[in-house]
């Protein structure tokens, strides 16, 4: 499968100054940007930058960012699922995982996450993919946000909805381990019935629940 990537850039105002929402950003350009010190949801900023540079270099990898001048203040990643996860078992070339999305705390509350996901779906090539995200409550910033599990889940769902992702049922044990966890997906317009069937088989592996 040829992974086509068309660059887009959208300018938005935040506190009266322009921010750039852009991508997919190639590794060589991402390398030149600083990472905001508040981007610590997954690992320290410099370590996360290294991880994103590796994804940006992958044929299917997409890194879309929110940039304040020369500083990355938010990002979203699209990449093939981890080989250890069930979502990789089907070896589907047209299934990508929205692996991480993060906005620095100083920039939250302005719908930047929603705008980042909307921009991510502007590329017509995204209609050739099934995009999934697995949401686990233990990854959520409940302390920093002041929200409870269900309030945070609602915020996450609304943000993902902005990118066209919707809730999908699954019997995946990790997702089923807590009712707030969920699988969400966006089915591209050019996805075949065969690919949809493969996706359904990945979602439900217990034949009694299928």
Automatic annotation (TrEMBL):
Q: Name one GO biological process term.
A: acetoin catabolic process
N-acetyltransferase domain sequence ranges: 14-161
InterPro entries for the chain: AcuA, Acyl_CoA_acyltransferase, GNAT_dom
Give the residues annotated as coiled coil: none
Q: Would you say which domain of life the source belongs to?
A: Bacteria
Which CDD domains does its entry note? NAT_SF
Q: Which Pfam families does this one have?
A: Acetyltransf_1 (PF00583)
One annotated GO molecular function: acyltransferase activity, transferring groups other than amino-acyl groups
Q: Which PROSITE patterns match?
A: GNAT (PS51186)
The name of this protein is GNAT family N-acetyltransferase
This protein's species is Halalkalibacter oceani
């Amino acid at each position: 499968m040829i992974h086509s990537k068309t660059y887009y850039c959208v300018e938005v105002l935040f506190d009266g100054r322009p921010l750039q929402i852009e991508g997919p950003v190639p590794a060589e350009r991402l390398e030149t940007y600083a990472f905001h010190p508040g981007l610590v949801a997954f690992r320290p900023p410099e370590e996360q930058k290294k991880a994103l540079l590796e994804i940006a270099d992958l044929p299917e990898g997409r890194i879309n960012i929110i940039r304040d001048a020369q500083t990355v203040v938010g990002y979203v990643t699209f990449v093939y699922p981890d080989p250890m996860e069930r979502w990789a078992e089907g070896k589907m070339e047209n299934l990508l995982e929205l692996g991480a999305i993060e906005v620095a705390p100083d920039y939250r509350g302005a719908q930047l996450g929603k705008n980042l996901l909307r921009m991510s779906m502007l590329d017509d090539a995204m209609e050739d993919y099934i995009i999934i995200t697995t949401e686990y409550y233990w990854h959520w910033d409940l302390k920093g946000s002041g929200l409870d599990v269900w309030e945070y889940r609602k915020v996450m769902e609304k943000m993902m909805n902005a990118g066209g992702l919707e809730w999908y049922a699954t019997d995946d044990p990790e997702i089923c381990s807590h009712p707030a966890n969920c699988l969400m997906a966006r089915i591209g317009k050019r996805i075949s019935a065969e690919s949809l069937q493969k996706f359904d088989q990945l979602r439900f592996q217990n034949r009694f629940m299928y």
